[in-house]
Structure formats: C-alpha cells, structure tokens
Request: fold
Amino acid sequence: MAKLMRLVAGVAGLSLFVAGCGSAPEEEESGTGAKASDFSACMVTDTGGIDDRSFNAASWAGMQAAKKSTGAEVQYVASTSENDYVPNITRLISQKCNLVVSVGGLMAEATGQAAKANANQKFAIVDSGSVPPNVYGMEFNTAQSSFLAGYLAAGMSKSGKVATFGGLPIPPVTIFMDGFYEGVQYYNKQKDKKVEVLGWNEAKPKSGSMANSFTDQGAGKRIAGNFIQQGADIIFPVAGGTGLGAAAAAKESGGKVSVIWVDTDGCESASQYCDVFLTSVTKGIAGAVQTTIETAAKGQQLTGSYLGTLENGGTGLAPFHQFDGKVPAELKAELEKIKQDIISGTIKITSPNQPKSS
Amino acid sequence: MSATLTPTTAPGSATAAATDRGHWYVGGAMTLVGLYALVAFGLGSRTDDGAKAVFNLNLLGDQAIKVPDLTVPAGPTAIALSLVCVAVGVLRLAVRLTGSRRTAATSAYLVAFVAAFLVWATSGHSLNFTSVLNATVLAATPLILGALCGVLCERSGVINVAIEGQFLVGAFAASFFASVSGSLWAGLVAGCLAGGLLGAMLAVFANRYLVQQVVLGVVINLFAAGLTGFLYERLMQANPEYNKTMAFSAIRIPVLSDLPVVGPVLFGQNAVFYLTVILIAVVQIGLFHTRWGLRTRAVGEHPTAADTVGIKVVAMRYRNVILGGLIAGLGGVWLTIGLNITFNKNMAAGQGFIALAALIFGRWSPLGAVSAALLFGFAGGISVSLQPLETPVPTAFLSMTPYLATIFAVAGLVGAVRAPAADGIPYTKS
Reply:
C-alpha cells in the first residue's frame, strides 16, 4: 500500500517536472529538410484542443506536413472557449501570419468578421464554406462516403438491423447519419431487402439518437448496448470520443457486433478496438489543409473553395483491416460500382446537410 | 417527515410549513397534467387502431428463465393509467393528505404517469424494459459512489464539489495501473487511492488553511482535469499499452441471476457493482447506527458541542473526507475498468456534479442519494431507449427528461431540504 502510494506520488511529481520542462512546443523546431521559407501559417483550434484525435489534430497534422514540404513556419493558438475565437484570430493577424487557418464551422462567424475588417489578410477555414474574396473554405461531403458505409453495413448485417447515433444534432454530425441512412435504403431497394436503421431517419431529423456529448463513453456504451439489445449488429457512432463506448460494447459482444468509425481510420486512431472496426468513414482534413498551405506558400491565389468528395479522395472508406477477409468480394465490387455512380451523379444523395459545391 | 427544527434533527427533513391552500394548487396541477396525459397519451393518434405496445423482458444471452414479452393494447392501457393520474389529482384536490399518505399518492401518480408515457411511446413498437433497467443500474453506479463520498464529506461538515475531479483521477489511475500491472485489482486499489489522495488535498486545504470550500473544490476539479489530461497525452496517447481495455468480468450469482427481469440486472454485474452495493449498506448503517456515525453527524451539525464532549472535530473531518475520496475514486474505477472502457480526457463528463445533485436531492442520506441516483439513471436509460422509437418527442426534449423528472420528483416527494448545519464552515477553536 505504502509502496503504491509512493508510486502515485512519484508519478504526480514526475508529471509536474515534465510539465515544467515540456514548455517548448513543436512549432519552434527549425524546419527539417526543406529550405526555410518566410511564409507563415497560423492556426486557431476549436475548443476540442490540438489533441482531440479529430479535426483539430488532423488540421495540425496537415500544417506540419506543409511545414515539411515547403519550409513554411507554422504555429497554433488554442481556443478554450468560444469567446477566444475573435481574440485569437486578432492576435495571429497582428503577428503578421500570411495565412490564418481557423478550424471548425463554429468559427465561421468570427473568421468572416475578421476577414471583412482585414481585407488584405488571407484566411482559410475547415468545415465551412468560402467567403470571397479572402476566406478559403474547406468542406467535406461525408454523406457520400457514409452512403457507402450504409450500403456496406446493410450488406454485412446478419440481423437485418443496423444502428447509428450522433454526438449532437448539428449538420457536421447529421450529414454522416443522413448518408448512412440513404446507403441502407439504397441497399434495400437494390436487393429488395428490409434492413432497418435504428437511431436515425432522415425524414425525421428531430427524433434521432444523440448522446449529447463527444466525451462521455459511458453514454456511448449505454446507447450501443440498447441498440444491441434491439438486435442491431453494426453500429455507426458519429460522436467523437463517445463513440469509443460503442466500440467497447461491440468488443464485449465477442464478434457479433461491429462498428464503423468516423473521421479517421479507427485502426490507427483507436487501435485497441481495431478488431471491431468494420471500416471507417474518413475525412481528409490533413491533406486539404496541407494542400491549401502549400498553394498559398507558393504565392498562388486560393480561389473558390475546397470540397472533399469521393472523387478527389477528400472523403472515403478506410481499409477493412481485420474484416478484409470477411467482406465478400461481390460486396466490395458493388461498393466500387456505387462509388463510381456517386461520382458520376447516377446516384443522387439527397441529404440537406451536404455542403453546396461551388 | 413532520419535523421540529432542533439541532438534533436530521438534515434534510422537510418543514411542515404547507399552507392550508397548498393542496389545491398541487391537486389542481396534478389533475390538469393527468387530463393532458389522457388526451395526449390515451386518445392521441399514436395509440389508435388497437396498436399494441410490446415490452421485452429478457436480455439477450443465456437466460435460464425466459419471461414472455408483455404485450398490452396501447390505447386502453394509456387511458387507464392516465385516469389513475387524474384520480390522484382529484384526491389531492379534495383531501389534504399528509405524511406517508401524501408520499404514497404522489408516488402512485408519478409511476402511473411515467407508465402511461411509456405505453404511448412504445405503441406500435417494442421496448426492452430489462435493457432500460440495466442501463439504469450502469448509469447510476458512479453517481451512487460519488454521492456516498458527498455524504461522508458533507455530513462531517466539509463541502466536496471535487467529486468530478476524484472520478477523473480514479478513472485514470485505474486504467493506467491495471494496464501496467496486468491486474484489475491493482487498478482498483490505485483508482481508490488516487481519489483518496485528492480527498486528502481537499481536507488539508479546507481544514488546515481554511480555504473557501466551493472555490477549493472547483480548483481541484481543474487541477484533476489538467493533470489527467496531461498524463494522458504524455503517457497513454503514445503508448496504448498503458491504456488497455480491461474490465472486471460479470459474476453471475447462482439462482438469483436467473430471476426474471431483475436477475441479470442486479445479480449479473461485476465486482465493482457488488462492492458499491456493500458500500451503500456500510455507509447507511455506519452513519446512523454506530458511534462513528453519531460523531460524524455531530461534527457536521454542531462542531463546538462535539468538541466540548471530546470529539476531535478536525481529525474526524480529515478521516471522513479521505474515506469519501476513496469511495469517489471507486466511482472513477467504474468509469474505466468497471465499464470496460479506456481512459479518455474529461471522460467523467459532468457525472461528478450529477452525483452532487443526487446527494442533495437525496437529502444528505445514503439511501436517499441512492434513490436519486437510480432516478437519474432510469430517466437516462428511458431517454436512450426511446430515441430509436421515433416518437414525436424531439430527441433534445427526451434528453432533458432525466432532469425534468428530478425536478418534479424533488418538488413532489422531497420538499424542503436542509444541509448539515456546519456544512462548509471550517472549525477553528476560538
């Protein structure tokens, strides 16, 4: 007991020590490889912080990749509340950043205002549209990839029931659920089956299943447990960290239930649950941010906006990993065909939450 | 419940200060809501055309005794239950009930109302009621542990709003030490100790340095969130082997776990759950039937008097706050290795504060807090289970029901509450 106590105290002490030493953030490292450039890109995180394993982390990864390839200087400031958006953006402008990248649709208003007030400053924003002339928007039509996920889930479900739930009823979340729902309906129409979607009906967006949290894994586990009791065997949680609770519930089912992850390849971002991840619906934030900075660093104009689609690889399905052998080749071929049909426009996705292409 | 407010009264007793006309307002409101239920639930379109509501009573799995599904005609059942509500409302309007009769009437009213709502919502669908109960127990367990911690601290006169932080450090330590040592029990002990350590910190600052205790608790919460977040980034994110998915496996108690409905819910859980049940009994009996309990209550009510008869007030407070910390730490243990979930930043997600609410709504008594926690859990379980049924009630509203239910239950069943008299006041010898 006393030993353990000492260990706990030791770890706590050590952490304070490390905290004291670890004050040098990564952005101060000198450029690796590429020649130093006088271009600087600065990012404002949303309240999730730089290590949210989601869009802030992905955006920062894109910034760092751009730093490697162009030698541009990159840095970020973290927002701890929505009240930080405007001061953070203003601070970066006064530091003479060439490009200010704001992360998240919630920052759209603050960014728009700053852009109006500083007509010569270039901005870019993730998960929101462009505001000409100086805000470059990066959006992702994840309904397309979720459509594939829905079709896959319907094809893989043994019980004929699949389920989805969200973190909060906001468009960046429900767009996934819409696409998933439509994918299942498309499967039913093609195969004359009746696979049921629990937790979401695109026609009744007010009555879907929501965890009301992006961190409460216990809630995610309870929601998933309820779905499993109702017979669902594939679950699609669109709720960030809360979704890990669904993965835990699936893991306990002993192979009967699987999960489709969102945003990043689950086998990389939450590898402990890789054996229950059928696949993941990915959002290529890092790549988009990287390309944007590279373009700007070369001195080229950022025009129009970026829309991640199946066609340009801005969104898609991750590899099946451990399920690769279990997904029938026929289904894989059908998914490929549907992907082409979505790209060509033969299959129309009707979700009202899709970003308008410009 | 009719109480006189002398220093010896148990905290939380309602004052019998109801006005003579009080029951008219209450009865009138209850009758109106009952009539609303009749129109909305019983006669609404959802329950039309002989629609049936099916309640499954078995969990998936190898249950020895299966109970057949409970199928009821939705319309007539909802009408009958709503009429019960109306009847109770009229009764309250006509007669001025007091004491246990009033409690019984209000309980019957609430049960009938919730049942009518459930039948209406399930109409044309099926709802797994046992799954709802299971979700209730899973959600209530950390709240119960947090509330028990609160009972120990506040009954001895120290306000503890740091339960959230104790959950976080407990959850972190449990996951970390269980992963590193490979032993779940090591994780459990470490989680409890981490909570206890934070409790010790609270005790020192509250008793030795007389820091304002609410502010202190908030600061400790921030400290715990920062510390665990930092350690998570430095240790766990880079090395998933420090944050494995591990969990106590379910222990099925023979015979009892085969009971229909309640069997798997109450007797098919894991060791942490059984430990929680034991702790409820220990704290309840300890607080009201032992010398330690009497002294604890004395120290929380009237420390000066306790001191004059030779009770060491500050030592008592130290001991109880640390003990409470150990229990809240166990609540953190439940959040990770109790639920088979890996640690994640801020994963307590406000449950420490809900535990605090359960403590107050439970009138600072262990059993009261347990009831309040179960009520929160049940309302949460219901809202989770109803979401997929596509009721006309928006999800946002369903998510609000746990809190709504609590407000009504507290107003209807609990009445005025009183904290321990010396709660939050540091004791110094003058």
User: Anything to note?
Assistant: Chain A has two domains: 36-140+286-308, 142-283+328-344. Chain A touches chain B through 49 residues (CB under 8 Å). Chain A is about 40% helix and 15% strand. Chain A has a mean pLDDT of 85.
